[in-house]
């Protein structure tokens, strides 16, 4: 099976004074604004790194749901936050890390099994496989 999804960006102007808009195939984002100040100066608005963080958090959580099901477990609730790090390096910027923070309530799960299954999801979710960055995981079982 092969699935294609798309997103697009439009940009007008220079790097610092220009303005852009991000759209997704689904319409979840439709000409959503982004720009230099939103990415590098903390001005509210979207940027590529937060979109990658949302993609990583959602992909990881879905992968863990699958892996839990294979182990005969079902999560009551899982909340994942991802923090993507953009760093200036020689010759420009690079995304160097994604830190996944998971808090999960999974009836019947034991701590060691939970940590093993969460690590498996971290390693095998498609977005983790895409990122050429250090990926860390802090998983907390709340049962």
TrEMBL record:
One MF term in the entry's GO annotations: peroxidase activity
Superkingdom of the source species: Bacteria
SUPFAM superfamilies assigned: OsmC-like (SSF82784)
GO biological process: response to oxidative stress
Transmembrane segments annotated in the record for this chain: none
Annotated InterPro entries: KH_dom-like_a/b (IPR015946), OsmC/Ohr_fam (IPR003718), OsmC/Ohrsf (IPR036102), OsmC_Ohr_Peroxiredoxin (IPR052707), Peroxiredoxin_OsmC (IPR019904)
PANTHER family attached to this UniProt entry: OSMOTICALLY INDUCIBLE FAMILY PROTEIN
Protein name: Peroxiredoxin
Species whose genome carries this gene: Sphingobium chungbukense
